[in-house]
Amino acid sequence: MLNEAGIYDYAVKALGRHMRTEVELRRLMKTRVEPSERGEAVIAAVLLRLKEQGYLNDAAYAETYARLRQENEKLGVRRVRQDLQQKGVAKDLIAETLESRYGQTNEEALAREHLERKRIRKPENPKVTARVMRRLVAAGFSTGVIYKILRQWDVPDDALAALENLEEKRDHE
Predict the structure, then answer these.
(1) What is the mean pLDDT of each run of 10 residues along the chain (173 residues)?
(2) CATH class for the domain made up of 58-102
(3) pTM for the whole structure
(4) Domain limits of the chain?
């Protein structure tokens, strides 16, 4: 088990490998301290020190994460929100970040960029249509935008109806 100086060094090295949220870093440090109030106090002291020094900042993390996912991976707002929640970023911080990052974004254009980036072509049959739909849902795009794109691709209405059933099942899970 490490003391405060050892935990601080460990945390700085962990942050040096890649950005992390406070929750992620706390989880990593918990494995390196004794499971007691003393261990929790060491973690709290190290987190405070890292914040004061500017090494740990969930707001900066959320902004950078959202920017990279939007610009590079062309992901939709739902996916980025879900990812940030899993990483332990506060809900109000997520909402604020996503509003500033995605507020003026054309979701349909972003979805089309995502399709292009992933080299996804116009579906030729219902099975491929369902696959395209699932990929776009997983990438965080709304069903309204997905249906709009599929309709512009002249996907038959019976294939879209089958997809609506698939979407209803997903909503109930």
Answers:
(1) 91 95 96 91 96 96 96 95 96 96 93 94 88 93 91 78 61 53
(2) mainly alpha
(3) 0.83
(4) 4-52, 58-102, 107-172
